[in-house]
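User: Can you predict the 3D structure for this chain?
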Amino acid sequence: MWHLAGMPVVERNYALVVNSFGWTSLALVVICLRLFTRAIIVRGLGWDDWFMAGAFINSVGFLVAEMFQIKYGLGQPVNLVTLNPFLAALLATVTLYNIAQALYKLSITTQAYRLFTIYLDKRIMQILISWIITCGIMSVCGSIFYCFPVSKVWNIEADGHCVNRTVLYYCISAFNILSDLMLVMIPLRFLLKLRVAQKQRIVLVCVFGCGAL
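Assistant: Here is the predicted structure, written as structure tokens:
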């Protein structure tokens, strides 16, 4: 059994820990390089950079909440003693995930908005940005306030009521998938028409095309 900062990690969580720390570390390197390039070399930080930095900060929070889930029994038989803090960590994980998703999508769309010069193209990107903000608010509020009072999320013995969490998560996932498809398909058409060097166009198309994965 692994131990992380004195916390036991059962075997079925090994892949989760490796992937979480691995991808977060890689994201840190990429974010630092991006901010250094934009702030020091280009001297032009934009909203897209701040949104991406915010997405990374929430991803780190997601990682921390995930580790608390492991601490309180993720991947192990249910323990009633640690169930309440586990559910609180789960709430934090889902909320931070939705915030990070909304922010990275805003980063991509605001970057595309900055690149486009034609009024119609910019207008379409404004509509997409508004859609992402609306879906982001809905997802975050839905992940926090699906129980009344909110404390019933982690205190199942408290008085109150909750909506069907499975149905809620499927609805949020459906909106996220729709946003992802729009995020890939809408800018891609405009990128093909950009008046930039062929090599730059290919790089931009590949970057946005990664979202299809």
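The longest strand covers residues 2-4. The two ends are 33 Å apart (CA to CA).
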